[in-house]
Amino acid sequence: MNRRKMMQKISAKDLYDKLQAEELQLIDVREVDEFTAGHISGAQNLPLSTLPENYRKLDKQISYHIICQKGGRSARACEFLEAKGYQVTNVEGGVEAFPGKLTI
Questions:
Q1: Active site includes 78?
Q2: Considering only CA atoms, which of 44, 31, 18 is closest in space to residue 98?
Q3: Where are the domains of the chain?
Q4: What mean pLDDT do residues 45-69 have?
Q5: In the CATH scheme, what is the homologous superfamily, with its name and number, of domain 8-103?
Q6: Of 68, 78, 81, 95, which one is the catalytic site residue?
Q7: DSSP letters along 25-39, please?
Q8: Which pTM value belongs to this model?
Q9: CB-hemisphere CA count at 13 Å for 52?
């Protein structure tokens, strides 16, 4: 029997609401050029393509929200990080569905 826990998820709208009330650790796993074209203020860029080499920079004591453009790459990043023992939440809908203003 597979007892794997379900991936934590939050909608981009709920993330926006949460960010109004509290500071969250947000990781954007899009590529650098996508990130610089527009991202959520305060997000840290850690491209999915470089995650296997760079994930150790993250702190296992901290809970992270992971975002990409639509939610596919962030889901893969969450699976990878969960397997390594990190606490992560996938942002469904990604930056594309985020209702707030993006930082350039």
A1: no
A2: 18
A3: 8-103
A4: 97
A5: Rhodanese-like domain (3.40.250.10)
A6: 68
A7: EEEE-S-HHHHHH-B
A8: 0.93
A9: 2
